[in-house]
Amino acid sequence: MIKHKSTWSWLRSLAVGYKVLLGVIIALIIFRLLLPGIVKHYVNTKLNALPGYTGHVVDIDISLYRGAYVIKGLLLKKTTDPAKFPFLAVERADLSVEWRALFKGRLVGEVILDRPAVHILATEDISKEPSKESWTQTVKALMPMMINRLQVNNGKLAYVDLSKKPVADLHIDHMQLTALNLANVQKEGKRLPSHVSLTGTSIGGGHLKADMDVNALKDIPDLDLGLSLTGTNLLSLNQFFEANAKMDVERGRIDIFSKFTLMDGEMNGYVKPFISDLKILNVKKDIKKKGGLLRVVKKAVVGLFAKAVTNPKTKKIATVIPIKGNIKDPKTSVWATFVGILKNAFVHAFHESLSNELKFRQQDNEKN
Questions:
Q1: What keywords appear on the UniProt entry (predicted)?
Q2: How many domains does the chain contain in total?
């Protein structure tokens, strides 16, 4: 009789245990079903907390088995951005643990971005951007652990000037970027332990290639960058020419080479563009018009600095524009100063090479 009661007691305990287990499993299933919505609400809240920006995501997928979540349809725009040109749009972002780094005793993450698009408007005031702390808090909210590997697939970077008529839109498409060892997991003992490689296709079919070694762990990163953009058809830049220099190009090609370093807040380097096979549309008629060619040359030359080197065999003009600057001033935005120095150098290089080519051809015509 005692044995019989003991058996029933054991069976009741087992039944209770199964009920508890079943309840836990159901609770986990419900939690798993609700988790994407919870994370989506969290991400949207953090995106909208960035000063001067609004943002949202369309959907979130969770992959618990690999320690990852996937953001679909991420959009981040300034409150002043037109709908057509949001600051950032990402079709798909995969944020996960980098498992290989765990074998080295480091818990770090990797991010894969599919079809991200970044639009930089010429009229925006970079100095009014959110502080570094605000950006850092937003990134940490989306990816709590330090990012060690970043990959960009089929990205786009566009520089748009809406104040010009027609609108000037310079862009790089099909960007592939790989950044490795950003958190210095490998501990190679180098001053610049991380490496970034980038390729892409510019407007006009130019081929972009860049390689950079960097120390991303410093407050102001140290870096050594080499960049080339070759084979760009100048016909594709006619909107830019029309908006900025009031002229058209019938044919021509531009190649741009640049190298610069940023060490302890000091920038040093150069931009060297080559323009070849240039032909300006209806140059003779343009000269007869009010301002004409002289107006174009004057507008391009004023305020610029460079040394032009003529190669009579190829009839190319090599213009060397220095990149120099200091971004250690605590009263200024590091990002704003960095972008401003590069923007001025590249725009000056472009205009200077164009004006030198025009002057060179004008001199040839006068001699003939």
A1: Membrane, Transmembrane, Transmembrane helix
A2: 1
**pLDDT number for residue 62:** 83
Residue 48 lies in a domain: no
Angle between helices 334-367 and 292-301 (to 10 degrees): 140
Residue 81 in domain: no
Is the pTM higher than 0.85? The answer reads no
**Do residues 325 and 274 make contact, with C-beta atoms less than 8 angstroms apart?**
no
Bridge partner residues of 151 (DSSP): 112, 178
Determine the straight-line distance between the first and last CA of the chain, rounded to whole angstroms.
Answer: 125
For residues 10 and 7, give the distance between their C-alpha atoms in angstroms, rounded to a whole number.
Answer: 5
Q: Is residue 224 part of a domain?
A: yes
Instruction: Please name the amino acid found at residue 196.
Output: V
Contact 242, 248 (CB under 8 A): yes
Separation of alpha carbons 200 and 207, rounded Å: 6
Q: Whole domain around residue 279: which residue ranges?
A: 217-368
Q: Which pLDDT belongs to residue 152? A: 97
In a domain, 206, yes or no: no
Q: C-alpha distances in angstroms, 49 versus 18, 37, 124, 135?
A: 45, 18, 20, 10
